[in-house]
Amino acid sequence: MVHGVAGAAPGELLGDPRTVRVTGDSTAAVFRRTEDADAEAHPERYAGRPVPEAYCWSRLTSGNGARALWLLLLPFMVANLAHWARPATPAADPAPRAVRTYGVLVRILALSLTVLLIAAACEVALDLLAWQCAGSGTCAGSRFRSWLGFLAPGGGWWAQPGRRLALGALVPAALTGLLWYLSNRTWSAYESQPPPAGAADPDTASDPVPALGRPGFWYGRRLVARLRAAHTAAGLLTVAVAVSVPTARHDRRAGAPLLAALGTLTQVLLAAGVVAVASVVCRRGRTEARPDHRLDRAAVTLLPGAALALLAAVLVHACWSRPDWTATGRLPGDLTFGVLMLGQGLCVLALAAVARYLHRAAPDPAAALRGLGGPAVAMLGCALGGVMSGGVSQRVADWLDGGATPGMRGAALPGPPVLLSWQAAVLPPLLLVLALLAAWFAVRGARARGRLAAAVAAEYPRETPDLDRSRRIAGARTAAALTDSAPWFVAAVSGITLVLGAGALAGAWFSGKVPGEAARGTLPMLEAAARAAQDAGSWLIGLGIAAFVAWGRRAYRDPAARRTIGILWDVGTFWPRAAHPFAPPCYAERAVPDLTWRMAGWTGRTGGRLVISGHSQGSVLAAAAVWQLPPPARRRVALLTYGSPLARLYGRWFPAYFGPGPLTALHREVDCWRNLWRATDPIGGPALPGAGQDVDRGPLADPLAYGRSARHPLPAPILGHGDYQADPAFAAERDALLARLDAAARADLPSQRLPVSKEWAGPAGPAAPADPPGTAG
């Protein structure tokens, strides 16, 4: 069996505190009860009964304190999800050009987020600290910032602006190096898990092969390595541009022909580097038909190395003595952030057009937002990146400016680009709209609960109606049903964010001032509203950043909090890093091969049959692993899922991979599939609603008993998403699957001779057992 989010101990899964690891390591492993450790050596003991196994994978997402740092990668993870939220394509006309266009747009959007993060680091380290504060005697001379004194005018060798910029550039360059290191380290541990030989052989698998059944789906080493090199180079080039632009501008104005010529040469090389990065990112993406063992050595090695060498040349050029150079105003960052924001908005709109085209070619009524789920998720990723990067800049500027407001009259420092202040100002109205939406959903839920409560008691015959009990049960069902409204909530957030972001960009570009200054002299109410929105937005971002840091710090120290964050990664990092290489690593690229190797190896060695059961996210891993099995092994497997999001969440948001077509093919190719679900479960639901009772059994009664009785003397809890094993239907379905496989195994023996390994040898020598032990793993 495979556990779901938040994990479970082997003893809890197997119902026995005495367990032993039979294969795997400290990160992910398969466990058995101690008494079952050598089951294959004594098949006579297990005639007619299974050998239970548990696959524990929770440490893949919440293993050590360093995972708390993954919170910083949240925008990258969301952007990567947008790649997989592509609409399905018809089997007769897969529209490869549109699919490639969709992938290219998402990869460009992901690249813009990397540039945005590094640009924000440049804004803090180069503009606010090295340029504005260090260039101001008032700011650098403060007793709270005396550590900047050596950069202040008259402070020594580092006091010249170019040298200050070169020193400050080490911060965003180090951040880029940290992102490269984390991605490379996890790439070696996660993406380097090859599938078993012959797994999902395209020559023998069904036609067309579902995407998750292709042998190269969980082995995308080449693309991640190539994208990592491109994003690393993009980060280093962003730092180089941030230093080169003001330096070259000063040299041209100062009339220094040699330095100006060197500056022009470096900018030409920077432009060439940008073209090289764009070409690598826009090249064809994943190769899923075959495991991709080959790496692009030139791109992986030369591109980051050349970008690093170019950055070093720019820093040396900036450190050249320029005694007449003084720092005034702010560095040219308004245009950079504005172009990034405009490009992201246009990219999201283009992505929406392609997604709509794909959805029309293969309409899926269950797909989220009629095929626009991917663009909506991409918009959320851009919004998260903007809030996080702009929020840090705003907080640092407020800290440096003391009691003044950056960008307003009387402020000691010019502050960050005005666009960041406009972004902060649109946050309060966005939160107000979200609060209204939440209130509307709450009112609608309350009304639905009232309607359901009247019918709940009728579902429990011979029970005395209890209005409070009925309301609690109806409330659990109503809350669980809100999951089905999530796509429209996401659509509202994304649409409002797009509109308000466009307004912020227009206000910043046309006024050139922060909102409070732009509204000065207008209507008093408008002026007060603009100032209040600007201040409130800045404080809200500050509180959000503080809560974010506190949550990460707690997760670093507290394993329980780290497991809570791990739940977020369990859902968000199931997919390979096809768009953003700096996203948290895909644990499924380790877990799915683990399960596939175990099932393929066991069935091939023993000739037995097995039931693989999965709860919640574990059911998704189980289905993905079954898809990867060779067809002969797949036909010897039964699938038992419960609390499964396969259709309700994954099929809705990722229709190209978990839509009705792939799930129907999975049902057709395994020996049998049963799925249990409850109406009170906010995550699980029917797996194949159109298949009737062939797959789905539910909704199960929850709670198991309405009131007190001799059998249930205490009130039965509302189980919701957990404790499916406590329901009698679970044991009944599991036993039925095991009996089905037992009968099939007995029917196999007279017609074929199964190869028997030495572990199966009995006292009289090697002989095929009458009933190979199964496994409910």
TrEMBL record:
Q: Where is this region: Disordered?
A: 753-777
Task: Say yes or no: keyword Membrane present.
Answer: yes
The residue ranges flagged as biased composition, category Low complexity, are: 761-777
Known InterPro entries for this protein?
Answer: AB_hydrolase_fold
Transmembrane parts of this sequence: 68-85, 105-130, 165-182, 229-246, 258-281, 302-323, 335-355, 367-388, 422-443, 488-512, 532-552
Q: Which UniProt keywords apply?
A: Membrane, Transmembrane, Transmembrane helix
Q: What is this protein called?
A: Integral membrane protein
Species? Streptomyces virginiae (Streptomyces cinnamonensis)
